[in-house]
Design goal:
The chain has 238 residues and is α/β, with parallel strands linked by helices. The chain has one domain (3-230): Rossmann fold (3-Layer(aba) Sandwich), CATH 3.40.50.720. It has five helices and seven strands, in the order E-H-E-E-H-E-H-E-H-E-H-E. It is globular. One of its GO terms (molecular function) is oxidoreductase activity. It holds the Pfam family adh_short_C2.
C-alpha cells in the first residue's frame, strides 16, 4: 500500500485499532504499511495497551494513555464484536432467547463500543479529517431483516448503529471535519463466523476484508458521519 491510499488523512497522526483478532490484526497491518500514520497502536485484552470492553474504568485508562501522546488521534478503528461463546449461541427462534444471552450481546456489541465513543471521540482533533469507525453487521439492519433469527446479535448491532448515529450528531457540534461511522465488513473468515458460513456464501480472508475497509476509510468524510456503510462505502438501510 502506498501513502496515497490514505492520502485524505493528515500525515503524522495516530491510528488506534481496538481488537487484535482477525480483522483488527489485518487492518493494523494495512494501516502500518500505508506509512500515513506516525504510529498504529493496538488495544486489546492481551496487547500492550490492555483494556476490558466490559470495564469502563479500563476504557477510560486507555483513553488517558492515548490522549497523553503528542500526535493527533486521526483514526480509531473498533474491531471488537461478539456472536457466540461456550454458553451462548445465535438464537434461531424466540424459544432460545435468554436474558443472560441478550445482556451479554448488548454489553459487548453495543454498550462497550458506546463507551469507547464516550472516551475516545473527545480526543479527535477539531481540525482536519478524523474518523471513528466501528464494525457493525448487515444483520443488524432492521430494514434488511427478512429471515429472522439471531435475536441478540441483530438487536445489539442495531443498538450499536443507533449509538453511532446519536454520537455523530453530538460530534458534529464540536468536530466539524470528523466522522463517526458504522461499517459492515462482509462475511470474513474468522473464528467468529466460521461455524456459520454457508455453501455459496462469499467469504473473504481478513486481509482482503482489511484492504476493502481501508479503502472505504479513505473515502469517508464529515458528510458520511452517522452513516451505516458497507465495505465499499455504500449506505446500508437502518
Amino acid at each position: 500500500m502506498t501513502m496515497e491510499t490514505l492520502g485524505s488523512f493528515p500525515s503524522g497522526g495516530l491510528a488506534l485499532v481496538i481488537g487484535a483478532g482477525g480483522i483488527g490484526s489485518a487492518v493494523r497491518k494495512e494501516l502500518a504499511g500505508s506509512g500515513r500514520f506516525a504510529e498504529v497502536l493496538v488495544a486489546g485484552r492481551r496487547e500492550n495497551l490492555a483494556f476490558d470492553l466490559l470495564d469502563e474504568a479500563s476504557i477510560a485508562a486507555l483513553a488517558k494513555t492515548v490522549g497523553e501522546r503528542k500526535e493527533d488521534l486521526r483514526l480509531v478503528f473498533d474491531a471488537t464484536g461478539y456472536l457466540y461463546d461456550d454458553e451462548h449461541g445465535p438464537e434461531k427462534s424466540w424459544r432460545h432467547v435468554t436474558p443472560e444471552a441478550i445482556a451479554r450481546a448488548f454489553a459487548l456489541n453495543a454498550t462497550g463500543p458506546m463507551l469507547l465513543m464516550k472516551h475516545l471521540l473527545p480526543l479527535l482533533p477539531r481540525r482536519g479529517k478524523a474518523v471513528f469507525a466501528t464494525l457493525s453487521a448487515k444483520v443488524g439492519s432492521i430494514g434488511d431483516n427478512h429471515i429472522g433469527g439471531w435475536y441478540g446479535y441483530r438487536a445489539s448491532k442495531a443498538a450499536l448503529n443507533q449509538f453511532v448515529r446519536t454520537a455523530a450528531v453530538e460530534l458534529a457540534r464540536t468536530h466539524g471535519e470528523a466522522a463517526c461511522v458504522a461499517l459492515h465488513p462482509g462475511t470474513v473468515d474468522t473464528p467468529l463466523s466460521k461455524p456459520f458460513a454457508k455453501d455459496g456464501l462469499t467469504v473473504r480472508s481478513p486481509e482482503e476484508a482489511a484492504r476493502k475497509l481501508v479503502r472505504c476509510l479513505e473515502g469517508i468524510g464529515a458528510d458520511h458521519s452517522g452513516l451505516f456503510l458497507d465495505r465499499s462505502g455504500e449506505t446500508l438501510p437502518w
